[in-house]
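Quick one: structure tokens for this chain, please?
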Amino acid sequence: MNHNTIELLEERLNVDVEKVQSGKVTLQKETRTKVVNVPVELKEEYLVIRVLSDKTANAGEVQMVDITTSTGVFINGTEIGHEPVEVLLSKDVVKVHKETFVAEEISLEKRTETSTHTVSDTVRYEELVETLTPKDNIK
């Protein structure tokens, strides 16, 4: 009896995973500008001079004032007389300064998600097929 061996072959799928670049994200901070309106209340001093005697009411009458006994008019503690008196006036002016502070914090991280996919392909394999031929049909 002769012992011969037949090898039956088949294909198998070998699936590998390769990491490829799928995109690129460029991050950059840009400085932009915007106009900010801030209402501010400003004050300004003015000198108001009023005439307290009405010269037109009694045009024929003249009032006599004794300057040695009269009480004077004082501004800033100085009596108004023949010497000039300075009256200091003031006003508010706007001074703007800018401050930088953290307005927002942004966290950056890369996250990897894993998912399962099914890969399908056709493979070939060999089978041994037996065909029996009756003795009578053998030539």
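The mean pLDDT is 83.
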